[in-house]
Each structure stands twice: as C-alpha cells, then as structure tokens.
C-alpha cells in the first residue's frame, strides 16, 4: 500500500502523522511511504531522517493525496484537504465530526473511508488513540491555567500552590477521565486545592484511590457545578461522551457568578466545548474574556508540545495503522471490532451514530452501522 503523510496545516500545528521511526515500521512491512517535505522539520524530524527511514519526500500535498491509498494525519482535514480525498482512499486521523457540520459534509461527499482516532476503542472500554493526547492536554491544561491566572495575562493574580500563610488556589476539574486525571496530577503537584466532578461513581472511587483521598471527588450534579464553579480560581472542562457533542455544563449565569479573573480551560472544545461561552481558539490567539473570566479553548493543545505529542500519538496509532496497511482497511476493521468503532464515514455513509444524532437535522445524512456499510 502507498501511505501518505502530508504536513499539518492547522494553526500552529507542528505534529506529524508518522515520525521517522513509525515510517520505518511501515517500510519494513513492504509499504511505500510518501512524506511531504518539511512535514516534521520544526520538531527535529528532518527530511533526511525520513529518507533514512525509507520514506520518499514529496513536494506538495496534492501529489500525496493523489498517490496515497491511505492518508495518515493528526488533525481533522481542513476543507482544501477534504476536497483532495477520494472514494477508495482511507483517511486515518482525528476527526471530531459531531460539532463540525462542514467537515462532515465534505467527508461524506469525498466518498473516502474515514477512521477517527478518537472513537477507536479497546477491551477495557477506553479510547486508546485519544488517551495519549488527553494525557498531554490534561497536563498542559494546568500549565495554561496557571499562566493565565497571572495578572499580566488577564487573571486574578492567584498562585495555584499558594505559599505558607496563604491558601492555595482552587481548581475544579469537570470530568475525571484521562484529561481529568492528568490535570489533577499536575494541579496536586503544584499544591493546589483540587476538586474533581464526574458522573461515574466507579471512576470517582478510582480517583480517590489513586490520590489516596488528597483531592475531593464529587458526583457531578447541577447543584455541585453551581457551588464549585462559583468558588473556583481555575475550571478545567474535561468531559466526554464518545463521538458526541460535549454537554454544556456551565452556562452564562455560571460564568457571571465566577470570581473576576478566574480562568476556564475547555479541553473538551474539540467536541464543541462543555461551557456555553466557549468557542474554539488557536495557539496564536488562545484566550478571550467574558464577564471577567478568561477563556482558554485551544482545540489542538498537544500541538503546543508537538515533539512529545507526535511520539506519544505514534505509540498508540502505529499498531492499528499497520493492521490497516497490512490487511487492507476493510479486512482490518472486520477482524477488529475496536478498530471498526473508529469508522465514522465510508463511501458517503455516516457509520457513527452519535454523529448522525448531532448533525442529522442540519445535514441530509445516511446512517448505517459500520460493518454493514463496509459492504457498500
Ligand atoms: N483540546 C485538545 O487539544 C484536546 C481535547 N481532548 C478532549 O478532552 C475531552 C476529554 O477526553 P478524555 O479525558 O480522554 O475522555 P475520557 O472518556 O477519558 O473522560 C471523560 C470523562 O467525562 C465524564 N463525564 C461525562 N459526562 C459528564 C458530566 N456530565 N459531568 C461530569 N463528568 C462527565 C466521563 O464519566 C469520563 O470519566 C474529549 O473531548 C477529548 O476529545 C483531548 C485531547 C486534546
Ligand atoms: C485530540 C485532539 O483533538 C488533539 O490532539 O488535537
Ligand atoms: Mg463574575
């Protein structure tokens, strides 16, 4: 199979779909890998390293999209990339379709087979291709929050760890999954006063065990959200309903009731965001202020630490990517129900129910379960 790796084009996105070490694994299995020139150069993955790994360097994305059987990316394809996809071609990347009607329409029109990293599952019921980036974004969320709590950056001038004689800042984490756990580790490490909300009692039990009772775990009700958001210095939005648009857990009234200079980091923004006032921002222009509350809503946070993130992402995507290339996409998905769960669009058909639930009224979408759609 010919595998194509275009350079990412989203704002300040320096990650790359395959690092040289991953390219070598595909080449060792007999595949041809085309990498766009300078795709990884800014994070130290030079064209020379790719050539040494067995890749062929290609000058333009057009040539890569025209020649490759499978495109391996990081971020969702931008409109001009969607238009280069075709029927019979596989796209393997993050998609986040539920909050994105434009991309969904373009992928349906392309006829391509589109596999979303974020909906591939594993036998433990978790999301193995989302997890590494959630680890990164969860850790970064506290760094970002601490930065914007500084006066010069719009915040209240609160040091999360406090100092002897002054109480630490209060961090509220809504959603105790991978992002939430990693945010909690960083916030606890800084000495902040941390509360974590989740709808899963089992998850709250696990978090209580992990942190040996040193943080507060609270069942996520409307009442708990009212109370804890009004006293927080930093709120991290970390909820997920897989594949679906994020539930809006803080509304405009909650934001008005927050302390002036407090900070929201909406990590769930890639699924549309879990605060009513959230809108996606970029690394170039990451924050805006509403009712004296700083909003940080960068949809590709791990792109900020692209070298670490590329390697972490490749560790998780490589085995599934090799299966797709070695067996062919259809057989690979039929052999592995967890990979099949990644299929979101195939041959003009939407195969992920939560996407149709979110967008079915806006777009004229045809839904079919993934296994059946693969026979179309
Ligand atoms: N902005 C960015 O750059 C990045 C964003 N993300 C996003 O972060 C979000 C969280 O991802 P993960 O932690 O991996 O998901 P996860 O599935 O590990 O955890 C989500 C948690 O939210 C909880 N939850 C669901 N509804 C809830 C509610 N109403 N109240 C409280 N908790 C609720 C679930 O029980 C679960 O424990 C996702 O939208 C993911 O796509 C992940 C990486 C990077
Ligand atoms: C998960 C995601 O949206 C990212 O890593 O950019
Ligand atoms: Mg206020």
What descriptive keywords fit this protein?
Alanine dehydrogenase; binds magnesium ion; 15 helices; nucleotide binding; 376 residues; alpha/beta; Rossmann fold; binds 1,4-dihydronicotinamide adenine dinucleotide; single chain; binds pyruvic acid
Overall description:
The protein is α/β, with parallel strands linked by helices. The chain has 2 domains: 2-111 and 307-374, Rossmann fold (3-Layer(aba) Sandwich); 133-299, Rossmann fold, CATH 3.40.50.720. It is 36% helix and 16% strand. It contains 15 helices and 15 strands. The strands form 2 sheets. Strands 3-2-1-4-5-6-14-15 form an 8-stranded mixed β-sheet, with helices on both faces. A 7-stranded mixed β-sheet has the order 9-8-7-10-11-13-12, sandwiched between helices. The radius of gyration is 21 Å and the shape is globular. 52% of the residues are buried. Bound molecules: 1,4-dihydronicotinamide adenine dinucleotide, pyruvic acid (PYR) and magnesium ion. Residues 256, 258, 260, 291-292 line the site of magnesium ion.
Order of helices and strands: EHEHEHEHEHEHEHEHEHEHEEEHHHEEHH
Give average pLDDT, whole number.
97
Main β-sheet: number of strands, strand sense, barrel status?
8 strands, mixed
Give the % helix: 25-40%
- By CATH, the superfamily of the largest domain comes out as NAD(P)-binding Rossmann-like Domain
């Amino acid at each position: 199979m010919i595998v194509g790796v275009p350079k990412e084009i989203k704002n300040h996105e320096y990650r790359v779909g395959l690092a040289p070490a991953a390219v070598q694994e595909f080449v060792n299995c007999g595949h041809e890998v085309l990498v766009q020139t300078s795709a990884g150069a800014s994070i130290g993955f030079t064209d020379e390293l790719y050539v040494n790994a067995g890749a062929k360097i290609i000058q333009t994305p057009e040539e890569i999209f025209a020649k490759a059987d499978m495109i391996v990316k990081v971020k969702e394809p931008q409109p001009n990339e969607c238009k280069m996809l075709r029927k019979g071609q596989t796209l393997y990347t993050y998609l986040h379709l539920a909050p994105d009607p434009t991309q969904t329409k373009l992928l349906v029109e392309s006829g391509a087979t589109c596999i979303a990293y974020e909906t591939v599952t594993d036998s433990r019921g978790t999301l193995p291709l989302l997890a590494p980036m959630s680890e990164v974004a969860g850790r970064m969320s506290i760094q970002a929050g601490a930065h914007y709590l500084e006066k010069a950056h719009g915040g209240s001038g609160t040091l999360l760890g406090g100092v002897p004689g002054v109480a630490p800042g209060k961090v509220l984490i809504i959603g105790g999954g991978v992002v939430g756990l990693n945010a909690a580790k960083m916030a606890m490490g800084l000495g902040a006063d941390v509360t974590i909300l989740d709808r899963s009692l089992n998850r709250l039990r696990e978090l209580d065990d992990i942190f040996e009772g040193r943080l507060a775990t609270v069942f996520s009700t409307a009442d708990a959200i009212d109370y804890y958001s009004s006293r927080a210095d930093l709120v991290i939005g970390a909820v997920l309903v897989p594949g679906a648009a994020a539930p809006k857990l803080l509304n405009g009234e909650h934001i008005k009731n927050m302390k002036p200079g407090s900070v929201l980091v909406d990590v769930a923004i890639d699924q549309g965001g879990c605060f009513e006032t959230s809108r996606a921002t970029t690394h170039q222009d990451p924050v805006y202020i509403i009712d004296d509350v700083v909003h940080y809503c960068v949809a590709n946070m791990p792109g900020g630490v692209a070298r670490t993130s590329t390697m972490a992402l490749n560790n998780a995507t490589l085995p599934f990517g090799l299966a797709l290339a070695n067996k062919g996409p259809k057989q690979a998905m039929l052999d592995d129900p967890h990979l099949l769960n990644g299929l979101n669009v195939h041959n003009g058909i939407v195969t992920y129910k939560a996407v149709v639930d979110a967008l079915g009224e806006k777009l004229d979408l045809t839904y079919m379960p993934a296994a059946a759609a693969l026979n179309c």
